[in-house]
Amino acid sequence: MRSIEVDEAVWAELQRRAEPLVDTVNDVMRQVLGLPREGPVQMSAPSAAPKRRNGRVNGTPEIAFRLPILEVLVGLGGRARRAQVLDGVGELMRGTLKPVDLDLLDSGADKRWRNYASFQRKHMIEVGLLSASSPNGIWEITDAGREYLARAQDGKSV
To answer: What is the per-residue pLDDT across 106-121, written as a single tens digit (0 to 9) for each?
Structure first.
């Protein structure tokens, strides 16, 4: 492990991007640099490889996370940290997630379903359901996202 010195402005920005009592400076730096989050070291190989479809594990489709993400965000006041949103989504989808969704990624950084939900977030930003201008680590619903959710809850086509 190496040590580095940073000025006060850089330190303040690192603190702003960190989730208190969860993220280390290294976690934030990895996030800023686009590196995977370090996870627990896997000491033994999994007993059976997950089944793949077209090169992708056959888990819950990413689109299935769209409405739960919107519901959780509304319940949290419209914006929240990634971990809060994903924890809420996990609760909402507890009975619907497939066993493979609960596996750790090969990197050991996170559970597969959390990764799928994070990818769905990217798609939701692209279609305007979530804000693209939220601070790093914050997920925020847009007016279009609220309308989408309301239509879905009314049983209308989305």
So the answer is: 887 889 999 999 999 9
